[in-house]
Recover the amino acids of this structure.
């Protein structure tokens, strides 16, 4: 039997976290699939952290990251760098994830080589090209090129059906981030930040992350100013912020938050440690996409620092609140959750809408059928 060759392409931290379980699942099916792991390294350090947690060694590494790279840099370098690899390896399918510029460019390069594309975490939409930017554009473009759509929920399936995509090629699998959480749960991690949190059990720990392009500048500093004010009002709270390595985030975070003994700015954490930090936190403040999915799985309230979300499931489940970035709204929304126990408890009771941790297995089962392989 001819093995099918599948190229799995990714470049940033969240893609790596969500593609890692798929790669581990492929390893169990080596008799029918040959896999090529191709990283662009749109992120360098933050990607390598994930590869190390999941023990994944890439077959190819384009190593494209530059400080303050532009979207055109990423698009052009991935497109051109990947062309030769596709030509040499001729995979039967390319799998890309989500909405990053790596994913879009890797999909475009596959399309130019007439290689079918499987899109993992397809179908998410805000239908607003500015929110989030450029992710909304990227994912719509990828879905226009893809052959197979692995969608996390019925809502994302409906989005694609409404866009006239072929229903028989849309497979609802849940989100592979749940598979990743099942994996990281098994790890016995130690880290100074976990010791710090344990050393002050009476404090409420609030986890903060921010990195989105549409929040650069004033929206970000507005949120950070609210955070400083909150530490003045509540003496029993402390913030932990693993700061994204983007210099535009680093500078503002250090400037506004750097000089406060109850705001702990730390380096990005390995994902197994990070999941423990979420578990130990009282609530989460973030503009991240992936953390909106992890929260309902880990029963933590999340205040989303955005105006729109492509993850309505968490809003419906009650674990997310969209609060935007206005300083007063951030201050009052956090204050409410710190003082209104009923509201806080309501938000922790959400039901995880993102599946049972078998998304990766379902993706590979579908590929087996797609290629008509006898398993
Ligand atoms: C990218 C994705 C975004 C995703 C985010 C996850 C695009 C357009 N954006 O945004 O969708 O939510 O990753 O974090 O694809 N840097 C480092 N080391 C690292 C990573 C980043 O130094 O390991 C710095 C570099 O200076 C880089 C900058 O961060 O230029 C921005 O990285 P980039 O990938 O362009 O954008 P993100 O905001 O990370
Ligand atoms: N994460 C991590 N270490 C950190 C911060 C976040 O491993 O210090 C993980 C988090 O658990 C989630 C993912 O990174 O799975 C989210 O990445 P990010 O917010 O950078 O991107 P987005 O999800 O917004 O695309």
């Amino acid at each position: 039997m001819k093995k099918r060759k599948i190229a799995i392409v990714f470049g940033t931290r969240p893609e790596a976290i969500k593609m890692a379980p798929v790669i581990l699942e492929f390893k169990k099916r080596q008799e029918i699939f040959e896999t090529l792991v191709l990283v662009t390294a749109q992120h360098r350090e933050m990607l390598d952290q994930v590869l190390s947690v999941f023990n994944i060694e890439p077959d190819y590494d384009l190593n494209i990251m530059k400080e303050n790279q532009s979207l055109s840099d990423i698009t052009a370098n991935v497109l051109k760098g990947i062309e030769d690899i596709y030509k040499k390896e001729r995979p039967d399918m390319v799998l890309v994830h989500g909405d990053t510029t790596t994913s879009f460019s890797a999909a475009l390069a596959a399309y130019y080589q007439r290689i079918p594309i499987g899109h993992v975490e397809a179908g998410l939409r805000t239908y607003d090209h500015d929110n989030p930017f450029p992710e909304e554009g990227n994912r719509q473009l990828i879905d226009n090129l893809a052959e197979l759509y692995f969608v996390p929920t019925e809502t994302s399936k409906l989005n694609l059906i409404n866009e006239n995509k072929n229903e028989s090629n849309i497979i609802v699998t849940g989100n592979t981030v749940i598979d990743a959480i099942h994996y990281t749960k098994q790890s016995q991690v130690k880290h100074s930040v976990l010791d710090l949190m344990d050393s002050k059990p009476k404090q409420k720990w609030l986890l903060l992350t921010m990195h989105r392009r549409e929040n650069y500048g004033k929206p970000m500093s507005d949120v950070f100013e609210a955070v400083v004010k909150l530490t003045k009002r509540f003496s029993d709270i402390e913030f932990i912020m693993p700061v994204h390595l983007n210099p535009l985030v680093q500078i503002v975070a250090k400037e506004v938050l750097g000089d406060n003994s109850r705001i702990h700015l730390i380096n990005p954490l390995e994902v197994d440690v990070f999941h423990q930090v979420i578990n130990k936190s009282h609530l989460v403040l973030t503009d991240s996409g992936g953390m909106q999915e992890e929260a309902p799985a880990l029963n933590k309230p999340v205040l989303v620092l955005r105006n729109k979300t492509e993850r309505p499931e968490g809003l419906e489940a009650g674990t997310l609140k969209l609060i935007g970035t206005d300083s007063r709204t951030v201050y009052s929304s956090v204050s409410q959750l710190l003082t209104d126990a009923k509201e806080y408890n309501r938000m922790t009771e959400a039901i995880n809408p993102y599946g049972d941790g078998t998304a990766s297995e379902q993706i590979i089962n579908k590929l087996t059928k797609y290629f008509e392989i006898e398993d």
User: Anything to note?
Assistant: The chain has 16 helices and 13 strands.
